[in-house]
Amino acid sequence: MLNEKRCVITGLGLVCAIGNNTDECFESALNGRSGIADAKSFDTSECYSHKGAEVSLNDLELTGGKKYDRTTALGIKAAGEAIRDAGLDMASEEASEIGVLLGSCIAGAACVEKYYNDKHDGKKGSIEDLTSMPATVIAGNVADFYNAGGITANIVNACAAGTLSVALAIDMIRGGKGEIFLAGGCDSFSSLAYSGFHALRALAPSDCSPFNHSDGITLGEGAGVLVVESYEHAVARGAKIYCDVLGSGVSSDAYHITAPRPDGEGQMSVITRAVTNSGLKFTDIGYVNAHGTGTAKNDDSEFLSLKTLFADNKDLYVSSTKSMTGHCLGAAGAIEAVLTVKALTEGKLPPTTGYSDEDLDVLKEKAGGINFIANKPADKKIKYAMSNSFAFGGNNASIVFANDPNVLNLSCPKQDLYVTGIGIVNGEFDEEKGDYTVNLDADVFKSYGIKSAFLRKLDRLSQLQLLSGLKALEDSGITVGPDNEGVIGICIGTNDGPMTEIANFQKGIIRDGIEKGSAFAFPNTVYNAAGGYLSIATGIKGYNVTIANGFQSGLQSVCCAAGAIMFGYESIMLASGTDECTEIDDEIYRDLGLTGEGKMTLGEGSVTCVIEKDSSAAGRGAKRYAKIAGFSSARDTSGDRSDIFRLSEASLTKAVMNVLEEGGLKPSDVRCIYGFGNGSAELDGFEREVYKEIFGDDIRIKLVKKDHGEARAASSSLQFAMLAKDISDGKEENGIAVSFGTSALYSAVLLTRA
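Above: the chain sequence. Below: its structure as tokens.
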């Protein structure tokens, strides 16, 4: 149920190269102490750059016996500080309702390196490294570590992921899906990222100097976590409140997979969205923590955007703290959000370092009317502060923090949501391979006007995603153009993401050296590349988020897409689930012991559904397959937490009962479930018994995986799409699509007749 709840920040946690906690990091930032030094994690002797901003702690003080990859360990450390700072009792019953939303770019890249190094040396890769490789496990691991039982999600929009996680937290709270979330991001230093940016010639030869020399980035690592809470909940428990988090913006460039638009259009769009959604004017913003990476193209487009939008704001202060923290990728936005909150609440604004006297003279001309903070901090009391993040794939995110709660600009009356388009790309059984694969015919792409030169840039995952997206737009009758490109968004769910590209890139640098990474292949190692390519190919410039959260990620993308429309961000959303099946996937799932006799058979595919609000669908006379009557995700912390695929009757029951309540139905009103059974005797039996307990013996359970294999996120989207088709064809009155993810997370969506 939509509401206009105030959202506040009640806890902060931070670890990066300039400190091991929030206060230490903020003091270092104010004093211009850089964490950039010669990289120690791996040998860079053959590279043209040798710099990195690494966390000084090797022992991240984790207990409990379970082994965690470094990215997750950094997230656990920052989350622990935020929990303590917020005064949360994680042993209490209330902990069961605390959600965890974390952003990451490279996830367990260090485990990918170790796994394939072991294989290169003739050893057997460890199960611990295998299960820690994908981003899909991070939020669940952090939640389990602290006994947090609320909704989890891993946001994987590259360098905008941390900012997007905070934005999603306030939407979850205002959408009635929770009262309190740990939101932020974490990423570790890795040879994969270093080699990739080195191949792009994007690394600074010395310490990075944003908006100054702009000769490249310096990679860093770390984690930032904020406790985002409804004001009412915070007051009721007597919490300390740092500030409000007012609103956010999310947009797409629809331009290039790595480079920003030179005209700054996408950045200006996202900043405008954040300011507007916060009920503010450009003249209200007192400080911007800029993305400020240190590359010429990024710095130029960002300065252009800021000078254009804030031309009438003569009291705007701007800085980039990446000159000290380095660029921490998926953690960057979260780290900068923590520093922005501290700047806002303490009236001390951190500088960008590295300017000589000569540089300062040049800066005056470049900055124009902006008060750019160079070398020394500024003492300035401000009411509103903004933090911006821009990423590969053309993804942009912005959030606004406030010392004044202001009047929220949430003018979005509740509307019914409908499925108005479906695009399905399914695998067929391959006798030779023993799994379900898709025949990607180049002629099909040509029929949609996709040129061969563009198609060659796409990895298999992105090709699957592009094709289902094009099919869905065609089925819905939508042509993207100047009149609607800004009101259409994209939400993609994936379990494995581009793991094939990640593994092959890592194997290449193990074989040839870090300095020999492929500039062509590297952009496709980020999880949101598929969404970026879809945006570029179609011209969609609205909301764009990628979620990696287990097999149920396709259904969770529907939940996220519905929320984006609910808050008036967009009129139309493409909600997708996409996963591929390659030799790498076969190897990984075989090594995990999940495939074989009596177990699941792998598949691949992509399914995109067009979700549209009532007024938009009516305005263009759209066909309506079905109405979304409710959506829910649920999890708990019971069971063996070392098992990321653990089953939970409590979580599954909660997810189903939540959507029934939201849709105003009783169990006896529903006779059809599109389930997640995949041929595993244990999983199929568990699901059947839970549904019988809720609905009775005569409940019909329909399974899509018996005909198309376990395609993870694509399968969960297919469940949703097939249910919508059955309802449209009159075969069902209503039904629920249900799927499961890692760490006992389940999602459910209730569909009824349009």
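The chain has two domains: 7-402, 417-752.
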